[in-house]
């Protein structure tokens, strides 16, 4: 591996302004989410509650990550292939 001198990074005024604008946007989005959570919690519609059963929670997680489980067949030909003796 070749060694080289470290690259010098310069902080520009445009970079600082862009960072500040992105930070303000994120803070405003976070504040809006918190406001919605507070209103939803007072209405009883907050985050996923404990009243939902385990399967529906598992299904929601699978849907969120895009996992679609395929049922496993229980016959021997599917487990071992189609062997002819």
TrEMBL record:
Keywords: Cell cycle, Cell division, Coiled coil, Membrane, Mitosis, Nucleus, Transmembrane, Ubl conjugation pathway. PANTHER family: ANAPHASE-PROMOTING COMPLEX SUBUNIT CDC26. This is Anaphase-promoting complex subunit CDC26. InterPro entries: APC_suCDC26. Belongs to the CDC26 family. It comes from the Eukaryota. Pathway: Protein modification; protein ubiquitination. One of its GO terms (biological process) is protein K11-linked ubiquitination. Residues 64-85 are annotated as: Disordered. GO terms for cellular component: anaphase-promoting complex. It is found in: Nucleus. Residues 73-85 have a biased composition (Polar residues).
């Amino acid at each position: 591996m070749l060694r080289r001198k470290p690259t010098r990074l310069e902080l520009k005024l445009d970079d600082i302004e862009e960072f500040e604008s992105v930070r303000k946007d994120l803070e405003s989005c976070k504040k809006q989410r918190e406001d919605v959570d507070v209103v939803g919690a007072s209405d009883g519609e907050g985050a996923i509650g404990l009243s939902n059963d385990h399967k529906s929670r598992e299904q929601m997680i699978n849907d969120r990550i895009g996992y679609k489980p395929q049922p496993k067949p229980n016959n021997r030909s599917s487990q071992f292939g189609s062997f002819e003796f």
